[in-house]
Design goal:
Layout (H helix, E strand, L loop, with lengths): L13 H4 L13 H6 L6 H12 L7 H8 L6 H5 L6 H13 L8 H10 L3 H16 L2 H8 L6 H9 L12 E2 L7 E5 L4 H5 L1 H13 L2 E4 L9 H5 L3 H14 L6 E4 L2 H8 L1 H4 L4 H5 L1 E3 H5 L11 E5 L3 H6 L4 H8 L4 E4 L14 H4 L1 H18 L3 E3 L3 H14 L4 E3 L1 H10 L4
Parallel strand pairs: 2-3, 2-4, 4-5, 6-7, 6-8, 8-9
Antiparallel strand pairs: 1-3
Helix pairs in contact: 12-24, 22-23
Length: 417
């Protein structure tokens, strides 16, 4: 028998690969297959490649790597799969094998920058401070007027993704529970969330406290490792997971996230880091925590549509709780979004690494949003918030893009959008 192209540790599970019966139900759910129409860029095709490599019939060629790298990791195929194939973990394990050879030469510098800055909250804060200066100094207008960015599509994608950069708002370390005390929770503040959407963290903490939870916000917490896990950088991911687990007190009943990608990675800690399994089973999205809470919601006369962030809908299987919360707001009209769980093209750093495919998916998403007639789009992930807001700006579509907790807080405080 030929030797497998995969080697421990973190080799993809051959038995899991063999669970795929090649039925093709996943194909229409796959964003890259819809854009490219290529079998090898579908879940079925990628699993075929994985199996061929695992059984020694294929080596990890540049072509193999390209088909794996083009996957967004949205996991829509898992929701569709009748055999229950855990494609996400197979993809991450396969990428871990590929990363041993380093990133492709064409994006080596960008990879180094992304993984040196994005998962490091302090470095990310400093980089965003420079971006704030770039905008306010007028340099952004000058650079855009030259048209030079069109020669650097990945840099242009990164530059265009970010709107206004707010100043950081450190949260108190403790929010006392209000009313009947239900327990004690820890809040993950994240990396992108804490710097670009600090109000989402603030609103999350206030809502949890209002719902009867004492909220602990550990000062020393860092990145959850989600970006590195999705890129197959499993050693770095494990190190971050262990550090994060150590920052949360043992006496918290739950650890609450408000970023779909973070929550999905943390709920799967047990698969990758045995000592982190305790935190994994205690991780919940904020909408799960608030689903049965008694909140003093006031009237908001708005038409809202909801976009399912991939790692909330497909990774965590949380779909109904955000919708139930939004429907509880008096006056709010929730309009269903066609193909609400089709990826918007953000997918962590995918929109930077593969701007062409990401742009096509974003254009489809914005078209679907325009069809609803909604003035507000709600979604539970910072990447989706940035991506959809960018697409709306480019299309000239007058919509506001918010996290569901923002609508809940504005309902309680009587603030209009």
């Amino acid at each position: 028998m030929a030797l497998s192209a995969f080697a421990p540790p973190d080799a993809p599970d051959l038995e899991e690969i063999r669970k795929c019966v090649h039925c093709g139900i996943c194909l229409p759910q796959c964003p890259t297959y819809r854009v490219l129409g290529e079998e090898m860029d579908s879940p079925r095709g990628r699993i075929y490649l994985m199996r061929a490599a695992a059984e020694g019939r294929l080596t990890l060629t540049e072509t193999f790597t390209r088909h794996i790298d083009l996957c967004l990791g949205c996991r829509a195929c898992e929701t569709a799969c009748p055999s229950g194939v855990r494609f996400g973990s197979l993809l991450e394990a396969t990428r871990a094998q590929l990363r041993r050879h380093g990133p492709p030469p064409r994006r080596r510098f960008l990879d180094r920058f992304i993984y040196a800055v994005f998962p490091e909250p302090d470095r990310l804060g400093a980089a965003l401070g420079l971006l704030r200066l770039y905008r306010r100094s007028g340099l952004q207008r000058l650079v855009r007027s030259t048209g030079a960015l069109r020669f650097f599509p990945r840099l242009a994608a990164m530059e265009g993704l970010l709107g206004d950069v707010p100043r950081a708002e450190p949260l108190p370390e403790l929010y006392p529970a209000r009313g009947r005390r239900r327990g004690r929770v820890g809040l993950l503040t994240g990396c992108v969330q804490r710097h670009l959407f600090p109000h989402v963290n603030r609103d999350t903490a206030r809502l949890l406290a209002l719902a009867g939870w004492e909220v602990v916000v550990p000062r020393g917490q860092g990145c959850c490792g989600a970006l590195e896990l999705h890129a197959g950088r499993t050693d770095d991911f494990r190190a971050r997971a262990r550090r994060l687990v150590a920052t949360f007190p043992d006496d918290v009943d739950w650890v609450v996230t408000n970023a779909a990608g973070c929550g999905s990675a943390m709920k799967e800690y047990g698969h990758w880091v045995r000592e982190a399994s305790g935190l994994a089973v205690r991780t919940r999205d904020v909408t799960e925590m608030l689903a049965d809470a008694e909140l003093p919601l006031g009237r908001l006369e708005l038409t809202v549509t909801y976009h399912d962030a991939c790692h909330l809908a497909h990774g965590q299987r949380v779909r109904q709780e955000p919708r139930q919360l939004l429907r509880r707001i008096p006056g709010l009209r929730l309009v269903e979004l066609a193909e609400s769980d089709l990826c918007c093209g953000s997918a962590g750093v995918y929109s930077i690494l593969e701007p062409g495919i990401a742009r096509e998916l974003l254009e489809l998403k914005i078209t679907r949003i325009a069809e609803t007639g909604a003035t507000v789009v709600a979604t539970g992930n910072p990447g989706c918030l940035m991506q959809i807001a960018q697409g709306a700006r480019a299309r000239g579509l007058d919509v506001t893009v918010v996290h569901p907790v923002e609508l809940l807080v504005r309902s309680i405080e009587g603030e209009a959008i």
